[in-house]
Amino acid sequence: MADVRIRQEIAGLPAYKAGKPAATFEGTAFKLSSNENPYPPLPGVLETAVAAAGQVNRYPDFGSSELIAEIAAFVGVGPERVAVGTGSVGVLQQLVQATSGPGDEVVFAWRSFEAYPIVVQIVGATSVAVPLKPDETHDLDAMAEAITDRTRLILVCNPNNPTGETIGRDELERFLDRVPADVLVVLDEAYVEFVRDESFPDSIELSLGRSNVCVLRTFSKAYGLAGLRIGYAVADEPVAEALRACAVPFGVNLVAQAAAVASLRAQDALLERVAALVVERDRVFAELRAMDLPGRLGVEVVPSQANFFWLRLGERSGAFADACEAVGVSVRPYGHDGVRVTIGEQEANDRVLQVLRSGF
Ligand SMILES: *Cc1c(COP(=O)(O)O)cnc(C)c1O
Predict the structure, then answer these.
(1) How far is it, in rounded angstroms, from Cα 219 to Cα 118?
(2) Per-residue model confidence as pLDDT tens digits over 9-37
(3) Which of 160, 161, 166, 195 to mutate to test the pocket of ligand 1 (most atoms within 8 A of CB)?
(4) In ligand 1, which atom is closest to the CA atom of 231?
(5) Ligand 1 pocket, residue 86 CB under 6 Å
(6) From start to end of the chain, where are the E strands?
(7) Ligand 1 contact via 89 beta carbon (within 6 Å)
(8) At 317, which helix (H) or strand (E)?
(9) So what's the pLDDT on residue 43?
């Protein structure tokens, strides 16, 4: 009997590697492999989610209207410019579906977010991966030069996952000036809440001024709702409309909608937690810089504006990840490229720093 025919692009997909759960060491295990928030949901959010769960015999609001109104007010645009989805990866998948198909090209930097080549391959489009510069930043000139008449979509990850580097306002605008108006540029800002660099662009303003700029944000990282799968896009109305057309019906469930609204209303607590994580990030970087990693391991400490840091450890990536695992911390190795480590609980960060100090 013949096997069912699966599209070649799907059969050939690389599996998405989720961050490993940590092995336990001395009774504790820490997961620094998925850039999650170490804090529980914001005050009041759990209660709201539990109350909403009492109504799950009903379908959620199809248009997520309360949540969209809340997001629109929060970012300062009209609700017609906002679309939500099942995590920002869900929204990204809708964006790729809405813009690209077989024969079309999607440009992004590499290394960047692992989901990019996967969502591109699912629709049968072609990934054009442009290497990062030696300092781990986007090579925007090379990305502009990679645009062809087949380019439909450009993904710009800012700050970049896994390197943590950012693109400044002027540099981004110079790049946007070079992109044809019919090519959509997605600014993936999954970590925007952690950014402290004053030259970081106001992406919402950019999206208001340029009809081909779309901003992607998520409740998974700073807001601590990774398990509920909810993210959003802010874009010109026709793009937002196309996104809604590609959505899985009722994909954003009613617990997620209620929890996201409650989270947006808990801004003060959110800002406090993010500030505490930024303080911890600064502490970790001060320790990293004090260790002479370039001299001892031949690896530069590149600055990060996100809740993680990146070490281009090359061949030693696996050994470092194993050494972290041996002390109860899972981190995220990327083959022989490097390792990404989330800024998490202080004790977890200290264990990682100790592994680096020891030369593992
Ligand atoms: C974590 C992350 C996301 C968010 O994914 P969700 O689907 O919203 O959980 C999006 N983009 C990047 C670059 C990320 O690192």
Answers:
(1) 21
(2) 888 887 777 777 776 777 788 999 999 99
(3) 161
(4) 8
(5) no
(6) 30-31, 82-85, 105-110, 126-131, 151-157, 184-188, 213-218, 231-234, 308-311, 329-330, 332-334, 338-342
(7) yes
(8) helix 317-326
(9) 94
**DSSP-based three-state secondary structure for 232:** strand
CA atoms within 13 A on the CB side of 111: 20
Ligand 1 neighbourhood includes 151 CB (under 6 angstroms): no
Q: Give the tokens for residue 167.
A: 């693109």
Whether the per-residue pLDDT at 124 is higher than 80: the answer is: yes
Minimal CA–CA distance to 89: which of 212, 190, 192?
Answer: 190
The share of the chain scoring above pLDDT 70, in percent, equals: 99
Task: Report the 10 Å Cβ neighbour count for 170.
Answer: 10
Tell whether ligand 1 has an atom less than 6 A from the beta carbon of residue 320.
no
Q: In what order do the strands lie in the sheet with 308-311?
A: 308-311, 338-342, 332-334
Task: Please report the sign of the dihedral spanned by the C-alpha atoms of residue 342, residue 262, residue 195, residue 173.
Answer: positive
Q: CA-CA-CA-CA torsion for 232, 78, 186, 182, nearest 10 degrees? A: 140
- What is the SS3 assignment for 43? coil
> Is the minimum distance from the CB of 190 to ligand 1 under 6 angstroms?
yes
Tokens 């281009």, residue located: 312
